[in-house]
Design brief:
The protein has 4 helices and 5 strands, in the order E-E-E-E-H-E-H-H-H. The protein is of the alpha/beta class. It has one domain: Protein tyrosine phosphatase superfamily (Protein-Tyrosine Phosphatase, Chain A, Alpha-Beta Complex). A 5-stranded mixed beta sheet has the order 1-2-5-3-4, with helices on one face. A hairpin with a 5-residue loop joins strand 1 and strand 2. The radius of gyration is 14 Å and the shape is globular. GO terms for molecular function: phosphatase activity. This is Protein-tyrosine phosphatase.
Length: 151
């Protein structure tokens, strides 16, 4: 765990969660944003990325959803670390899968699952969470921890 306290500044691409924690969302195809790199990231991609900082990879092709149990574990870690570290979530384009992950983080931080997509669209990007099955994943996300292996 990183000993220093370092978080993002509120701004473009940074979602403020109800607890006040800040998490940056982005699309990897858009290049590296200005400013400091993350301390930890969760990446929803079809193939594992190679990055110079600590990260978790969630296998997830474009327009799909990750394994629920894997997502819950990775995002719970991301939420905890966002209290004192710069955390980002990203996919290729920065909307669908990134929006899904941000909405799930919002659920973990207390936003009702039924409201999480609207919360992320208002605070991150109006096009976040792109397809119906991603919406359904977010609505069911709060229930996943009660099911063995996310099933």
């Amino acid at each position: 765990m990183n000993e220093r306290t370092a978080t993002w500044s509120a701004g473009t691409g940074v979602l403020t969660l109800p607890s006040g924690r800040l998490v940056r969302g982005r699309g990897l195809r858009h290049g590296t944003p200005d400013g400091p790199p993350p301390d930890f990231g969760v990446y929803l991609l079809g193939k594992a990325p190679t990055l110079p900082w600590e990260s978790r990879w969630l296998r997830c092709r474009d327009f799909w959803v990750p394994d629920a149990a894997d997502a819950h574990a990775a995002l719970a870690e991301a939420l905890e670390r966002a209290g004192s570290e710069r955390v980002e979530v990203a996919c290729g384009g920065g909307r669908g899968r990134t929006g899904l992950a941000l909405a799930c983080l919002a659920v973990l931080d207390g936003v009702p699952a039924a409201d999480a997509v609207a919360y992320v669209r208002a605070g991150y990007h109006p096009g976040a969470v792109e397809v119906p099955w991603q919406h359904r994943f977010v609505r069911r996300f709060g229930m996943e921890e009660d099911r063995p292996h996310g099933r």
